[in-house]
Amino acid sequence: MNKIGFNVLAWSAEMSDNLLPVLDRLKKIGYDGAEFFIGGSPEESFKMIGKHCADIGLEVTAVTVMGPEQNAISPDAKIRAAASEQLKWVIDRAADLNAQVLCGPYHSAFTVFASREPLEDEYNWSAEYLHGVADYAKEAGVLLTPEALNRFECYLCNTMEQLSYLLKKVNHPNVQAMFDTHHANIEEKKLGEAIKYIAPQLGHFHISENDRGTPGSGHVNFDETFKALAEVNYKGWLTIEGFTRNDPAFANSIGVWRNFSEPWDMAEKGFELIKGMGEKYGL
């Protein structure tokens, strides 16, 4: 069975000891790992959380985003350089957490738009930046898995076809693709076909409902999803990512204006869904 994770952004984007009882309960439910947002929390807090996860036997993955001042596809070379330095800092914090994977849409800046389609220069700048930090991440034991987002949050990579195009330009084994069923539900014609398309490059997977609530409560076709994952023999993480208003500053930054589900409803029922689908399709 693939390892099952839960993204604690359902509670908080901040790294603090408030997360410790959350992690204990996730472990009790049966989760193999937890996923954390790497942002502006104090550096020492990452080691504290990483140690607690190690102590209770939870593995770790991580996620991050880049802002407009660290936009890897900016025409300004200084801003592109700032993106590289920021991503190296994030990789260091991921190493503090003992994280295996760093996912997210850091191929470009989150919700920064140019009012046009992506340019070839932008794909080239993004690829140069990702290739430039790939060895640094590998030495830290962190796999980079940039993510395609929906059209309302990103314009460089909305689909698996665009993400694959970027990764072929990156051309580094430590930079692979991430698939998120929430974004794919918006941008892809068929989830199964999109999974099969990206399968040779697929390194991380988010199980997310269409509204970011409890997986299985909406209209994402998880039968199609898990059937395709089994057919491509995917062996990576299956990590639930759902959002709430529990951390208002973070919720405001990503346009979450209401609670879609309670966090523990997401965690408990989502775990049951993944286990059931895994057994059904032999994952």
From TrEMBL:
Residues 23-251 form the Xylose isomerase-like TIM barrel domain. Keywords: Isomerase. The keyword Isomerase applies. SUPFAM superfamilies: Xylose isomerase-like. InterPro entries: Sugar_Epim/Isomerase (IPR050417), Xyl_isomerase-like_sf (IPR036237), Xyl_isomerase-like_TIM-brl (IPR013022). GO terms for molecular function: isomerase activity. It comes from the Bacteria. This is D-Tagatose 3-epimerase. It comes from Algoriphagus machipongonensis.
